[in-house]
Design a protein that fits this description.
Number of helices: 3
Number of domains: 2
Radius of gyration: 19 Å
Oligomer: single chain
Structural class: mainly alpha
Shape: elongated
Helix content: 40-55%
Length: 97
């Protein structure tokens, strides 16, 4: 793990950066390599803020549980959308002819 200016810049975009002392920042691409100890501060930035700033990060600027929920939701939406297309595609195609 090597700290980069790009990584630090991403964290500095957060409005809570100057007052934050959390060792795990969702805007830190090395978050998985950091250590969290009982009693450490937690990220206080709002989820929409982190998501907007971290949209190009692997974790999208989300905490692990948020990312899991995001992936589950978007996976199920895509499955439902695909099922609807399979169900209605023949009908839509016939109407367009």
């Amino acid at each position: 793990m090597k700290e980069t200016m790009e990584n630090t810049a991403k964290m500095k975009e957060c409005s809570s950066f100057d007052s934050c002392s959390a060792p795990l920042c969702p805007l830190d691409k090395f978050m998985k390599d950091r250590i969290f100890l009982k009693g450490d501060s937690k990220c206080i930035a709002e989820q929409p803020t982190r998501f907007k700033i971290g949209k190009d990060l692997p974790n999208l600027g989300l905490l692990p549980m948020e990312l899991k929920g995001y992936k589950e939701y978007h996976g199920s939406v895509n499955k439902a959308r695909k099922a609807l297309l399979i169900k209605f595609a023949p009908t839509l195609t016939k109407k367009n002819r």
